Amino acid sequence: MATFETLRLEKGMYSGNFTNTLEKLDPSENYRDTPLAGMDAFQRQLKRFGIHVSGSGSDRVEKFFQSSDSAVLFPEYIARAIKQGMSESDSLSHIVATTTVVDAPDYRPLTLTIGNGTIEPFPVVNEGAALPEYLLKNSSSLVTLQKRGRMFSTSYEALRFHRLDLFTVFLKKMGALIAQEQFADAVSVLLSGANALPAEGAEAFSYADLITLWNALAPHKLSAIVATPAVLTALLGLEQLQDAAAGLNFHGSGKLITPLGATLIGSYAASDDTIIGVDGSGALEMVTAGEVLLDTGKLIDRQLSQASVSCLAGFSKIYDDSVRVLTLQG
């Protein structure tokens, strides 16, 4: 009998990362060249108990509670559905350069101080002269992690006969909302202390304004533009953004790309009189307290009347000049 079929599952496995705990007890590498290759330890447990979470043959919610062992899998299923929803609504990857996991409610980031006050990428250094100094030190300000989440109220009796693929749809929506709120937190950090650039007009942005934004970010790269859907709609109406190549890319992938090579991101976290230009390779550090946080005990015991799902995250600007904000002069 394979190891995954004999594991004793218990609530205490959620004291750390549940999947990592399972992997230590039942390593995936032991299943190479077997029909179970490609599954992680959690997926093997679903197979052990015959639980199908997606597709036309998905089981009912009550399938998780056929035994005390299989009930332990329920919180991980919820966490994965939430994370899937967050991933499918992801915009943060375009503006976050790196992610740091911490085990404290706040965090002190690193800052870069340039001794000569310039950002020349390749300064000429005469013989015997001192090299420009780049000083890395801890910031004087802390990054405070913000809790974003939802409380869902239901009952086991209400859920037990419904299919898991339908329940997954609701969970993914919760994840998408959390991701949108985290993106709004990130945008507020991008805007803090950013130098505003005046747009040419008072009522609408022009293609010349985009060129100004692109030039102002140099030597950084304009990799993403964040603006409200209304502003993006106006931008996409500009003659210069209606060329055939841009149209083919939009129709083929659904991704909006400007001729300047920047990904367009619609967000109500911006305002209708601003366009935010970002170099995602150096704009933000995302600081998180790990995985999705759940009331695991309640979920395992079918106490769903007040079950919470949340994430802790904060953001810190890495390079101040990796962000520029274009503002209408209305």
Number of helices: 10
Could you tell me the strand content as a percent range?
15-25%
Element-by-element helix/strand order: HHHHEEEEEEHHEHEHHEEEEHEE
| Low-pLDDT sequence parts | none
Mean pLDDT across all amino acids: 89
Multimerization state: single chain
* Total DSSP E strands: 14
- In angstroms, what is the radius of gyration? 24 Å
Global outline: globular
| Helix and strand composition category | alpha+beta
Main beta sheet, described?
5 strands, mixed
Into which percent range does the helicity of residues fall? Answer: 25-40%
Termini Cα gap? 73 Å
Structure description:
- The chain is of the alpha+beta class and 330 residues long.
- The chain has a domain at 3-89 and 152-181.
- 31% of the residues lie in helices and 20% in strands.
- The chain contains 10 helices and 14 strands.
- The protein has helices at 18-25, 41-48, 68-71, 74-88, 156-159, 164-191, 207-217, 229-236, 244-253, 296-300; strands at 96-101, 106-107, 110-114, 134-138, 143-144, 146-152, 196-198, 224-227, 263-266, 274-278, 284-288, 293-294, 307-317, 323-327.
- The strands form 4 sheets. Strands 1, 6, 11, 12 and 13 form a 5-stranded mixed β-sheet that branches.
- Helix 4 crosses helix 6 (164-191).
- The protein is globular, with a radius of gyration of 24 Å.
- It starts with 17 loop residues before the first helix and ends with a strand.
- 30% of the residues are buried.
